[in-house]
User: Fold this.
Amino acid sequence: MTPVPEAEEARTRIQMIPSVGPAEFLDLPWESPLEEWPSELLVQATRGLGRHVVRFVDRGGALFALKELQAPLAEREYRLLRRLAAEGVPAVEGVGAVRERETADGEPLADIVVTRYLEFSLPLRVMIARRPLPELLDRLLDAFAGLLVRLHLAGFFWGDCSLSNTLFRRDAGALAAALVDAETCEHHARLTDGQRAYDLQIAEENIFGELLDLEAQAGETVTPAPDPADIVADVRARYERLWSDLTAEEVFARHERHRLEERLRRLNELGFDAEEVEIVSDEHGYRLHLEPGVVEPGHHRRLLARLTGLSAQENQARRLLADIASFRRALEERGERFVSEPAAAGRWLAEVFEPTVASIPRELHGKRDAAEVFHELLEHRWHLSERAGHEVDFDEAVRSYVDTVLRDEADERAVVSDEAAG
Ligand SMILES: Nc1ncnc2c1ncn2[C@@H]1O[C@H](COP(=O)(O)OP(=O)(O)OP(=O)(O)O)[C@@H](O)[C@H]1O
Ligand SMILES: [Mg+2]
Assistant:
């Protein structure tokens, strides 16, 4: 029997991490430019401003962003995003690069970098549409400066730091920032002060421009935002303050050894851990040195993950850990003699956290992630109790929160846009 001749296939090379299910990606129309993909394949999610064609697809129930880039930039960005994740820097997760694409006629096409859609993240544009900039500014700038510090501690030069290349997520009353565009990133063993200063200068210039654009778009209708020049100076001040809190050398006398402990505690309070400290002693006392590369973000997130397996942002984790601690105290006050921290955390998870999350109606799960829901619930209960003059029952607080707060909120798991993607 003669084999049926196969139709000539356009070629493509797909590199992808196994955990996303690469088989799901095989039948996408790689032989067409991203811009021409049929709309039934695409999910219309809102995106920030940018130059490239970016489209969103649902594969096996998960959302992914595809961005077309010229070779060799897509593979480079994919590798860099992998490295950012390995170093614990908040960024979208690069899961694949698609290269050597060509059309059915053999015409070469640009490469594509595939990232996992960052759930519950909001581009600046979307946040500003919901809340005027002046109200957001404090949290926004803190999150942005914090992201830049984290990148620099881990030895990454960003090169295109801007608000449009940042995604923001709610973080228990604060915002957490994640990098979304790593095209210009470089990884070094350690950044020089000059490289950091240059990156900060790029951030200032980009943000200044972005704020002017926003002002122009807002016209006369919105409360005037503070002067862009002041905002930009503020970003720098926040960056420098945090950098120095984390890495500044400290000198103390022989009788001031407690300052070592205090410094490490302060580091933890800021949400960081030191893998190693270096102490030089001389005839005057001690000099404490923290190498940027050994200062790691995520103190509370790691602790929460170790105790409960839950993943959360830093501030959310701080909040949940505080709730675990008060749950543990309550157990002991009820007469349980000694409850270890891991035991309390395990019981809190099973008796408090999981039942609470399970009691939120399914159709509302897309509004907030579980840790954020729990945080908002604690806040809500606190307000209800204040008003009532006594501690309001947890179940009652859940009912009230769901009916008067959560139900009216917009879905944020993936911000579906009313405009065409692009
Ligand atoms: N993984 C993702 N999750 C959520 N949103 C994403 C993701 N990837 C991209 N986006 C959205 O698409 C926008 C554009 O992506 P990106 O910044 O990577 O490309 P670009 O801006 O076109 O590139 P450039 O900044 O070089 O012009 C982002 O601002 C973001 O809103
Ligand atoms: Mg961009």
